[in-house]
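ok so i was messing around last nite and threw this chain in just to see what happens. nothing serious, just curious
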Amino acid sequence: MSGVSQFESPASRQPLVALNSPATVAQGSRVTPGSYPTAAQVRDIAAMQDPVARNHAVTQGYSDLSNAMGQLLGTENANWSTFATWASKQAGVSIRGEDMPKFFTEALKQADNVMGPLSQVDDLLRKLGLPALPLGDIAAAGNQALQNVSQSIADGNKVVFEEVGQEFARFVETFQGDTQYDAAKVAQYLNGFPADKPVLKEAFGHYAQAMFEKDPNKKAELMLLANDKVGLHEQTRLQPYVEKALNAPVKETFRGILKQTIEAHINALPFPANLAGKAALKTGLVDAALNPVVDGAASVFRRLATEHMMKLAVPGEVLKLGNDLPPPAGMESTIFPPHLRSIENPELRTLLDQLDKSPDSLKGTGAKDWSKLDQRMNYIVDLFRSRQSDPALFDPPFGQRGTYPVAPQAPRVS
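result:
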């Protein structure tokens, strides 16, 4: 059912706009047990050893926590876990290494800075009585480098879910069924946060305020403030994992695997035919020939890996994180949803002044270097603000809701 918002007005607000009637939250709502992971079940999921199965459970867990939060706070505003669902699902693509090996091999064939030097290495190997270096060996080195990157992403995915997911579960467990804001109860709840997580503590205090806020403008701003603060905590926590993923020792991986292949071929030759090869290894002749191949292959890998990681698929669109955010469909001229087109909450305004390099605009949001925390946050705060009212973000990522506790892992079939 469509209607006209009656909440846009004082002067700083935009004119009345047609929009879907916001979902109303029945105060005193309770969330069905087993429809979302409890804090203990979040820890159990994080303890899963298979990174692929764990990521699937993490992604589903985020979605079900998002849905549980939506039952308490309404679904007219996405919460942080709503966005985390899709970021975790995208992380799963990197964790599984989907498509990357095939793309890498094809890219190597097109890279003059790889194929040219590789032909010179093959010339040297022929002179030493050795077979040419197969392109597949370089692809194998790329696969190993990708596994190193994937491990960092998987580790970050686990750490954040275990830490932040427990707090979402604890929020639901604490406040479901409440019919009014209880300052003493909120204070007692917030005392449960570790002293070294002040930003996360503040964020969940804002969610508690938003739960009982009747004014849709104030509520939307409280939700954005909470989302941004959880995002800041999360991205700060992820910093070492992002740096490790993007700065993985790619050259060392390539050099090690290619040199091992050549050494194995040399050692397979009988004496004295292997003497020339051993001399070439000892004098550094092999290393000198490999250097440009390693440099070229590492360059191709970093470009593809960055493109592979630097995107986010959400319902209805695939966002390239290195490009400026496009306006949401239907908001090409207004950019932000009605209740977030102007920001009146002073704390939110201050936070956006710190994190958003292009206030009230999507220009300049693209993160050219995802390893930089300030560039990630510049992108994320506008992602949250521009998409906060998109109901499709609440869709289950795998087509259905989860059930808890999660069934035991089946053994992986090789």
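not much to say yet. Residues 2-394 form one domain.
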